């Protein structure tokens, strides 16, 4: 009996000590990139993944508390060298700044916890964050990246191909319940299967198009990849755009037609719903697996349908996706409608 207890104790200690030393080893391995911090514990994961609408915690732990110090959280903006302050705390009081106003707080689960909690995560929250310990002598910091799970969709104007300058492109994404995609979101989408033969803006002002199946009109026989035009003039140059959206509050459903655009809009209203935006349809397709082999009107006047299980009679394309009929004449009485409802 006694032996057993000692044995258990030994196992217990071993696992704690082992876990502990592995954290330190991890920290040491990071030494080349960021020096081991005296006061801040290096996180085990530098990338935190969440969805729009969730609450998320960005961990930041003190190893111990200096006698007096402040914790400062900020967001790193690659194109703006100014500091985007989120919160400053001296352990007792704290001050919130504009960024994330009302949605950010320190978690403070215990005396050494300086983690940041962001509630109701929005698309704009994607990016890199810095937790900084300021004690006047040796300021120390660590950075974390917040990634949203989501889906990238190419968007083209009703007026036709290559219509948007950068500013208009940004707005177009927002109007479709999205945000202009970052290059890394576009890259992720390409690995997920996005193939689009028109160049589009991404958030940093560069222009690209993702190709999975090389073909003559899409950059010829170069290997699959993201074809890049590099940075373009944000006012004068015109392209399509890549938008990003994440999980949806509410849901999207289809009502059978045939209806023209006006009837479609009335039909959603009669159900206390709104016509879906393009971002709504993509989010429902990606997160809820909406599969509907019928073209339906969307708010922007386009007609699309979402396919998760490709079949011969539904557009014939081999891969899942949201298919588009473009922007038909609104008088055409041929399609159903996709409605978006919050409940
Ligand atoms: C997020 O936190 C708030 C309170 O801070 C809570 O009311 C809300 O239910 C939480 N949301 C989710 C999705 O957990
Ligand atoms: C969450 O944020 C969205 C805007 O991003 C807003 O419309 C919604 O009302 C917010 N929800 C809560 C519970 O605060």
Supply database-style keywords.
23 strands, 6-stranded mixed beta sheet, Mannose-Binding Protein A, Chain A, alpha+beta, Immunoglobulin-like, 20% helix, 343 residues, single chain, binds 2-acetamido-2-deoxy-beta-D-glucopyranose
Overview in brief:
By secondary structure, the chain is α+β, with helices and mostly antiparallel strands. 20% of the residues lie in helices and 33% in strands.
Give the topology.
Layout: H1 2-29, E1 40-41, E2 47-50, E3 56-58, E4 61-62, E5 70-77, E6 80-89, E7 94-96, E8 104-106, E9 116-118, E10 127-134, E11 140-148, E12 150-155, H2 166-175, E13 179-180, H3 183-191, E14 200-201, E15 206-211, E16 225-231, E17 240-246, E18 251-259, H4 261-270, E19 274-275, H5 278-288, E20 296-297, E21 303-307, E22 321-324, E23 335-341
Parallel strand pairs: 2-11, 14-17, 20-23
Antiparallel strand pairs: 1-4, 3-9, 5-6, 5-10, 6-7, 8-9, 10-11, 12-17, 13-17, 14-15, 15-16, 18-23, 19-23, 20-21, 21-22
Account of the 3D structure:
The chain has helices spanning 2-29, 166-175, 183-191, 261-270, 278-288; strands at 40-41, 47-50, 56-58, 61-62, 70-77, 80-89, 94-96, 104-106, 116-118, 127-134, 140-148, 150-155, 179-180, 200-201, 206-211, 225-231, 240-246, 251-259, 274-275, 296-297, 303-307, 321-324, 335-341. The radius of gyration is 25 Å and the shape is elongated. The chain folds into three domains: 40-148, Sandwich (Immunoglobulin-like), CATH 2.60.40; 151-245, Mannose-Binding Protein A, Chain A (Roll); 247-341, Roll (Mannose-Binding Protein A, Chain A), CATH 3.10.100.10. The N and C termini lie far apart (59 Å). By secondary structure, it is of the alpha+beta class. It has a six-stranded mixed β-sheet with strand order 2-11-10-5-6-7, with no helix packed on it. Strands 12, 13, 14, 15, 16 and 17 form a six-stranded mixed β-sheet that branches. The longest helix has 28 residues, at 2-29. One 2-acetamido-2-deoxy-beta-D-glucopyranose (NAG) binds next to loops.
């Amino acid at each position: 009996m006694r032996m057993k207890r000692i044995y258990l104790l030994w196992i217990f200690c071993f696992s704690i000590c082992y876990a502990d030393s592995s954290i330190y080893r991890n920290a040491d391995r990071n030494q080349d990139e960021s020096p081991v911090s005296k006061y801040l514990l290096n996180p085990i994961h530098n990338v935190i993944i969440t969805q729009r609408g969730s609450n998320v915690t960005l961990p930041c732990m003190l190893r111990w508390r200096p006698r007096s110090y402040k914790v400062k959280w900020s967001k790193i903006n690659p194109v703006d060298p100014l500091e985007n302050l989120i919160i400053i705390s001296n352990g007792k009081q704290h001050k919130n700044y504009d960024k994330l106003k009302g949605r950010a707080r320190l978690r403070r689960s215990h005396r050494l916890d300086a983690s940041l909690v962001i509630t109701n995560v929005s698309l704009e929250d994607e990016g890199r964050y810095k937790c900084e310990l300021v004690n006047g002598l040796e300021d120390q910091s660590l950075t974390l990246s917040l990634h949203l799970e989501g889906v990238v969709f190419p968007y083209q104007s009703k007026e036709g191909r290559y219509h948007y300058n950068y500013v208009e492109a940004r707005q177009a994404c927002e109007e479709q319940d999205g945000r202009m995609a970052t290059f890394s979101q576009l890259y992720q989408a390409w690995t997920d299967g996005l193939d689009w033969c028109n160049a589009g803006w991404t958030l940093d002002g560069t222009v690209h198009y993702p190709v999975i199946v090389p073909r003559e009109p899409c950059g010829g026989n170069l290997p699959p990849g993201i074809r890049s035009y590099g940075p373009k003039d944000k006012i004068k140059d015109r392209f399509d755009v890549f938008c990003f959206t994440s999980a949806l509050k509410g849901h999207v459903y289809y009502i059978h037609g045939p209806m023209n655009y006006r009837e479609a809009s009335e039909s959603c209203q009669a159900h206390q719903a709104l016509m879906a935006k393009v971002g709504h349809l993509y989010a429902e397709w990606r997160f809820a697996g909406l599969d509907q082999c019928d073209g339906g009107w969307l708010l922007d006047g386009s007609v699309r349908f979402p396919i998760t299980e490709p079949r011969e009679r539904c557009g014939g394309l081999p891969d899942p996706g949201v298919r588009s009929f473009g922007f038909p004449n609104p008088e055409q009485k041929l399609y159903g409608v996709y409605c978006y409802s919050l409940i």
